[in-house]
Design goal:
Length: 430
């Protein structure tokens, strides 16, 4: 890391911790994800054991277990980590309860045993009341040997829908990308704050410092690209037809047979006939890249902007507030300064080039594991696994066509690069 003035580093670190952000591992918590809930909430633990959750989820066993438990709605004695664990368990269970296994009927109502605690815990933690990126990745992965750091083989995954090593790898790689991204976020926040502090003091920002921080960002992003490529070890058929169905949100639950509107009814919470259409589990709910985009001034088209704003409600409250506060304070700080400082152009564009690389790898993986798999014949479509033969196709958790959406992210990131011709046109205009 580049050497920083002590006061500036302290201020930045204090602000980041206020948002439940770690300068070592970004949005990942520092505690283990496997601490067992106390006896008062053992009923939740029973839902994922005897038989294991992934076994119970593949039929009617899980639904029968849910229907037998009492309604628990008192969390005063639980620590934050225990509340996160309870919400994680309930989120996994809710998705399996609604979607079944492709052979059982898809349900349109969560019973009070799930709906009431899901709603209460989600309200308290400031996040949507179903499975999210936070519950499947951030609160679902922890280090086996902390001294070895975040690499996929050193990550323990708590819960999966399928009980497969492929699903564990998917979550583990996602967690490691998050951790690697800490250096990028740290560096970009320090660049933005150093520019802002200098302007307030009426002095020139330290360009050497900024270049060094851009270099740190490029190194971190390159590591994120290398980590993301490890998901290509998964089996595409298993991912799309076994794992991905459960990533679907409630907006994909249709109401033709029940008489309800599309979506899911939270019994004991919602008025009769009311349903909810939350989006499903999606990497778009990661605060990491929304933070990076905000700090670099990446502008998305209207559809992407709307979708990315919508999924912020699926981020934990502190993380969402961090994105929003950085957006309010620094959304144009770095880009505007670089536009007036040609010497920083190569470093700034180098950062964007690495993000383009990352998003192109993501697009390539989505093409292999979703777009092409959707053409496979003889498979049962349910949840987020839609076959083209059944009139479906590869869509994202928010319902958008997957490939065009991801290609749009690549295009918008590339379009953010600043060319020398842009600088010339600006100087002439001035």
């Amino acid at each position: 890391m580049v050497s920083l003035p002590g006061t500036q580093l302290f201020e930045a670190t204090f602000l980041l911790r206020r948002w439940s952000y770690s300068i070592e591992s970004a949005f990942l918590p520092s505690t283990s994800c496997k601490s067992i809930l106390p006896a008062s909430h053992a009923a939740f633990e029973d839902l994922i054991s005897d038989p294991p959750f992934h076994v119970a989820a593949t039929g009617r066993i899980l639904r029968e277990k849910v229907d037998r438990i009492a309604i628990l709605d008192n969390y005063e004695g639980l620590q934050t980590e225990e509340k996160q664990r309870a919400l994680k368990i309930l989120g996994f269970v809710a998705h399996a309860y609604i979607w079944g296994d492709g052979n059982t009927e898809i349900l349109q109502q969560l019973p009070p045993q799930l709906a009431i605690p899901l709603h209460s815990l989600a309200e308290e933690l400031g996040i949507a009341p179903l499975a999210t990126y936070a519950t499947t990745v951030l609160w679902n992965c922890s280090l086996i040997q902390p001294e070895r750091g975040w690499c996929p083989e050193n990550v323990e995954v708590d819960l999966t829908f399928t009980g497969t090593s492929d699903e564990e790898l998917f979550y583990a790689v996602s967690a490691c990308v998050e951790a690697a991204g800490a250096e990028a976020v740290n560096s970009l926040i320090l660049i933005a704050s150093s520019i802002s502090h200098a302007h307030e003091a009426g002095v020139q920002p330290d360009e050497k410092l900024i270049v060094g921080l851009f270099d740190c960002t490029i190194t971190a992003l390159a590591q994120m690209v290398r980590l993301l490529k490890q998901v290509l070890k998964m089996k595409s058929e298993l991912f799309y037809w076994k794992m991905r169905p459960y990533f679907a949100g409630w907006g994909l639950v249709k109401g033709e047979e029940t008489g309800l509107r599309a979506g899911v009814h939270y019994a004991g919470i919602d008025p009769p006939g009311e349903t909810r259409k939350y989006v499903g589990i999606s990497a778009a709910q990661s605060s990491l890249f929304q933070t990076i985009d905000v700090l670099l001034g990446v502008q998305h088209d209207e559809h992407q902007h709307s979708m990315l704003r919508n999924v912020r409600s699926h981020m934990p409250r502190d993380h969402r507030h961090m994105v929003e506060e950085l957006e309010a304070s620094y959304s144009s700080t770095i880009k505007l300064y670089v536009e007036g400082t040609p010497a920083l152009l190569p470093a700034y564009n180098g950062v964007l080039d690495q993000i383009v690389r990352f998003r192109r790898v993501h697009l390539s993986a989505a093409t292999k594991y979703a777009v092409r798999e959707a053409d496979r014949r003889g498979k049962t479509s349910f949840g987020l696994a839609k076959g083209t033969q059944a009139g479906g196709g590869a869509i994202g958790a928010g319902g958008s066509d997957l490939k065009p959406f991801l290609q749009g992210l690549v295009n918008c990131t590339r379009a953010t690069r600043i060319s020398t011709s842009t600088l010339i046109e600006r100087s002439v205009g001035e």
